[in-house]
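Person: At home tonight, work slowly through the protein below, taking as long as you need, and write a paragraph about the fold.
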Amino acid sequence: MIISHKHKFIFLKTRKTAGTSIEIALSQFCGERDIITPISKEDELKREALGFRGSQNHSVPWRFYSKSDWIGLLGFKNRKHFFNHANAHFIRENIEEGIWNSYLKFCFERNPFDKAISRYYWSTREPRPEISNYLHSAPVKLLTNWGIYTINDEIVVDFVGRYENLNHDLAAVAEKIGISSDLKLVRAKGGYRKDRRYYSNVLDTQSRDRIELVCAKEIVAFDYSWDNKKNK
């Protein structure tokens, strides 16, 4: 995630939506006071090679510590930090109200059925379990992004781009925050998914039911629906 004071935006990083690629691209425009959370060592090296800013300023300021946070420190817990997939509630509670209310807040979402297949290939290795078995045992938070950009089930970001329209929607964000619309996305965390068939050719009825249950709220909010398209 990124909080840019220089360009007055908050990027909430959702899962399996090209979030790391977007984060790397945005970091080239960040200033020295901006908050950039750490990514994997491999991706930090890619960012460094491009000459972009790496992770910085991600410790939560002391003034936002609650009584329980201070007790945690006395119990030898680590200091509180902004983190990779921090949700809207955590961010709002740990920055100034004026920043939360005035900065452009945005994230990206993806067709839940296609996202589920991407998650399966990212989270498993050969010999892989059956995808239906994985989806029924995977933690809910890995299958849905709803809790990242909502608070009390209300969408609290100003813009939700679609992975399916990634370049177009990212250009729209770039225009809104006043940076170059020619954002170059670096390929990050790619190469894991081997089966490129359309999702309705991959997921069985049980898998479909699982995703429709877990992702019911974003399916309704963004008008996603099951498509029986067949690969030619």
